[in-house]
Request: fold
Amino acid sequence: MDNHKLLQEIIYDCPFCDKEHNIKIFSRNGKSLVKGETVEYEETYYYCPNEDDEFVPSKIMDDNIKSESIDDYSVSYNTDI
Ligand SMILES: [Zn+2]
Reply:
């Protein structure tokens, strides 16, 4: 699924590299299964080009979870980029 979009680039203290460097911030439409129904929501994640991997700062994670408005963690993240 190719629905992620670049929001901005910032210098951020990267947890993979353990130093500050340029990080890309993306948002994408995620899907989760809630009570048997597929619910779409927008989630924000940070991307480290050095490690070719993504992470979600805890502050952003809270926002993502709030926007889902569900109270369990049975979220299947769509990881294909
Ligand atoms: Zn990094």
The chain has a mean pLDDT of 83. The chain has one domain: 5-68.
